[in-house]
């Protein structure tokens, strides 16, 4: 078994930093997030954190990014120039739930016959080093969503703590991972990690839930759930898989820039159309859309739930609108008989 002692960790991080920007979990001004290793203000990596408060999705899908420039050049000819910026990045210390979140984002931005060139460029330059969880938080429920706290098959490299807690078993799961470790002077196992399975204390039952939800669009439970929601958007901004965005432009004289920024399905203006028409003007349809997308629509389209069980929304919702409680309520709910039947 190949191992990486915890004393060797700075050596590995330094070696990886020679050819890429390494992002590690850190706490900055009271906010935990992924930040560049060794940069001013980052401090020591916080590998003791089960999850950072802010997910790492902005490394692939920035909160705001320029897409292309357009305008009229000096000769009077129109032009459109794509803006696609990417550099080699190592995401070190990502947890299995966030690795799955990247798989979900890959589905959205790279499949179904279209590839988002900005996302694709960043994804191709990304190396992921996952760390298995030894003690999931009280708000974690990834194993109820079909994941394992100690396995991350889509990560390039996987670290799992040894029984004595002094080292990690290091497994290279892709060719990219093997090459990165070899260049850094480290060896790794190429077989599957032998870490003992770990279980989350928070449990929900999602078996058959997507199929049931497909027939619950008009259920009164949605109105009951929506009464509590503030539609503040906190859940969507801390969620590692939410990917709603808005596209805007800035024009100056003969040139302009089009850019996109994160948006939220919780916001009134997100679905507002020309002529002030809004199919989700009321709060309830917006709340319903969020949960149906997480638990039903995405699974129908891509074969997996859009919720990875990281627990961030459970922890940060200001009114404690808990998705795990809602799942229990949905499982217990009786189907609503369509109007006109049984008369």
Strand content: 15-25%
Provide a count of the helices: 10
| Number of DSSP E strands | 11
Distance between the first and last residues' Cα: 68 Å
Mean pLDDT: 93
Structure in words:
The chain is of the alpha/beta class. It has one domain (3-332). 28% of the residues lie in helices and 20% in strands. The protein is built from 10 helices and 11 strands. The strands form 2 sheets. A 7-stranded mixed beta sheet has the order 1-9-8-7-6-2-3. A 4-stranded antiparallel beta sheet has the order 5-4-11-10, with no helix packed on it.
Question: Can you tag this structure with a few keywords?
Answer:
single chain; 343 residues; alpha/beta; four-stranded antiparallel β-sheet; 10 helices; 11 strands; globular
Give the SSE map:
Blueprint: E1 3-5, H1 9-17, E2 21-28, E3 31-36, E4 64-72, E5 78-82, E6 89-94, H2 96-110, H3 117-124, E7 126-131, E8 157-161, E9 167-172, H4 175-184, H5 209-213, H6 221-228, H7 234-238, E10 245-252, E11 255-262, H8 283-302, H9 312-316, H10 323-332
Parallel strand pairs: 2-6, 6-7, 7-8
Antiparallel strand pairs: 1-9, 2-3, 4-5, 4-11, 8-9, 10-11
Helix pairs in contact: 6-8
């Amino acid at each position: 078994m190949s191992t990486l002692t915890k004393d060797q960790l700075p050596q590995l991080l330094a070696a990886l930093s020679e050819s890429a920007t390494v992002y590690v979990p850190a706490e900055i001004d009271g906010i935990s997030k992924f930040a560049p290793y060794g940069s001013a203000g980052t401090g020591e990596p916080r590998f003791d954190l089960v999850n950072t408060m802010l997910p790492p999705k902005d490394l692939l899908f920035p909160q705001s990014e320029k897409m292309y420039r357009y305008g009229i050049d000096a000769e009077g000819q129109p032009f459109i120039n794509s803006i696609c910026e990417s550099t080699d990045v190592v995401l070190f210390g990502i947890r299995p739930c966030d690795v799955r979140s990247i798989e979900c984002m890959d589905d959205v931005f790279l499949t179904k016959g279209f590839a988002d060139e900005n996302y694709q460029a960043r994804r191709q330059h990304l190396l992921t080093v996952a760390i298995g969880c030894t003690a999931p938080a009280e708000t974690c429920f990834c194993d109820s969503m079909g994941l394992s706290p100690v396995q991350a098959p889509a990560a390039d490299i996987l670290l799992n703590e040894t029984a004595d807690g002094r080292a990690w078993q290091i497994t290279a799961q892709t060719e990219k991972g093997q090459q990165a470790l070899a260049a850094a002077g480290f060896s790794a196992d190429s077989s599957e990690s032998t870490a003992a399975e770990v279980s989350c204390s928070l449990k929900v039952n999602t078996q058959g839930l997507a199929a049931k939800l497909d027939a619950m669009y008009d259920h009164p439970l949605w109105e009951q759930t929506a009464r509590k929601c503030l539609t503040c958007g906190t859940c969507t901004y801390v969620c590692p898989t939410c990917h709603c965005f808005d596209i805007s432009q800035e024009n100056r004289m003969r040139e302009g820039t089009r850019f996109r920024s994160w948006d939220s399905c919780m916001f009134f203006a997100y679905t507002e159309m020309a002529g002030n028409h809004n199919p989700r003007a009321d709060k309830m349809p917006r709340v319903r859309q969020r949960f149906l997308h997480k638990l039903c629509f995405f699974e129908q389209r891509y074969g997996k739930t859009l919720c990875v069980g990281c627990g961030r929304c459970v922890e940060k919702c200001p009114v404690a609108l808990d998705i795990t409680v809602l799942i229990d309520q949905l499982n217990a709910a009786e189907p609503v008989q369509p109007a006109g039947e049984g008369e």
